[in-house]
TrEMBL record:
Taxonomic lineage from the root: Bacteria, Candidatus Falkowiibacteriota
Pfam family, any one: Sigma70_r4
Regions crossing the membrane: none
InterPro entries linked: Asxl_HARE-HTH, RNA_pol_sigma70, RNA_pol_sigma70_r4, RNA_pol_sigma_r3/r4-like, RNAP_delta_N_dom_sf, Sigma-70_RNA_pol_init_factors, WH-like_DNA-bd_sf
Name of the molecule in the record: HTH HARE-type domain-containing protein
Keyword tags: Transcription
Gene Ontology BP, a term: DNA-templated transcription initiation
MF (Gene Ontology): DNA-binding transcription factor activity
The keyword Transcription appears for this protein: yes
Domain annotation HTH HARE-type: ranges: 275-339
Length: 341
């Protein structure tokens, strides 16, 4: 296909961008519904500024039973799907999503796809995008997961992948074999990697080379660097764009993630998801590559934001004293023991 996405990326056709505006599309579709139907769908799917609400919560607002709310929700979606104008309204969204999926090897982790769609649609600076992105993603998810189910499939229960989208009825089971070998290689190496190293690990695997022609196609050459340069995506835009199918697959893998320092590894590793203060200290010192005062280390931990827990200087200092991975270099200044010659 590619024409839909090409018009937006290369030709920057404003009329096509407008046709991709999920908020506008859904609002016009909702004009065909009764007020109660619109309100129930908006609250269930976090549209129109609402947070997602349960059947019980909506029932209390409308003085309805939980089951009655469910019935209205289901009937309203069926009503929308029977609209004569629906296919035409969703034509551009469907075309662009199928093009993006094709560019990325067939599957895309849910938020990865929704982020790209939001950037394409909103056409705003990064500061403004942050405030509008969540709403835009909710509308796109509503369309993909409820109105385009004959063409786009959302997979929630994969053993190997986080929730992802793919073209309906398109087989992607060969990717599972590649992921199994990738996980095995990562666990055997027992160290985190930068994304370039991880991509090379995939390229050097037996299973990738067995299925290479199904993943890497000559037509996967649309330049999306301008999108990937957005700070939503932490890796280099050129790296993602040059390896779209492999990056998309890696991004979707369960248990393999990127830490705050840009290194990828298994979720069970403290280098990837540090829970203890001592592990956070290690990551900071290893990244900085030089001895640091314990107060400076504390500031860095809180700035990086590994989790919602705020570190305090006293706790950090205690860990530096107790953990034999660290050595005292000067008054209050510590380094890694491995730096000793």
């Amino acid at each position: 296909m590619k024409d839909f996405l090409k018009k937006i990326i290369n030709d920057k056709k404003k009329d096509e961008i407008l046709k991709l505006n999920a908020v506008e599309i859904v609002n016009r579709i909702f004009d065909e519904l009764q007020e109660r139907e619109r309100d129930i769908l908006s609250r269930r799917f976090a549209l129109s500024g609402h947070d997602s609400q349960t059947l019980e919560e909506i029932g209390r607002l409308h003085n309805l039973t939980r089951e009655r709310v469910r019935q209205i929700e289901r009937a309203s979606l069926e009503k929308i799907k029977k609209l004569d104008s629906l296919d035409k309204r969703l034509e551009t969204v469907r075309g662009v999503v199928e093009d993006i999926l094709d560019e990325h090897g067939g599957i895309m982790e849910k938020d990865f796809l929704l982020d790209i769609l939001s950037i394409l649609t909103l056409q705003v600076d990064e500061k403004e995008l942050e405030s509008k992105k969540k709403n835009s993603k909710n509308y796109f998810e509503f369309i993909l997961s409820n109105l385009l189910t004959d063409h786009i499939e959302k997979v929630d229960n994969s053993e190997r992948f986080s929730p992802f989208y793919k073209v309906k009825d398109k087989a992607v089971n060969y990717l599972e074999d590649i992921v199994d070998e990738l996980k095995s290689n990562i666990l055997s190496v027992k160290k985190t990697m930068k994304i370039d190293e991880l991509i090379e690990t995939v390229k050097n695997s037996k299973t990738f080379n067995l299925y290479k022609d199904k993943i890497i196609k000559e037509k996967n050459n649309l330049d999306l660097t301008s999108i990937f340069k957005n700070e939503i995506f932490p890796e280099k835009g050129e790296t993602i764009n040059s390896n779209k199918p492999l990056y998309s697959m890696i991004h979707a893998v369960k248990d393999i993630n990127r830490n705050k320092m840009g290194h990828w590894g298994h979720d069970s590793w403290p280098e990837v998801k540090p829970k203890r203060i001592s592990d956070k200290i290690y990551l900071i010192l290893n990244e900085e590559g030089k001895p640091m005062h314990f107060t400076e280390i504390t500031e860095k931990i809180n700035k990086v934001g590994f989790d919602h827990k705020k570190a305090n200087a006293g706790s950090v200092h205690n860990e530096l004293i107790l953990d034999d991975r660290y050595i005292l270099v000067d008054r209050g200044i510590y380094g890694l023991k491995t730096w000793q010659k």
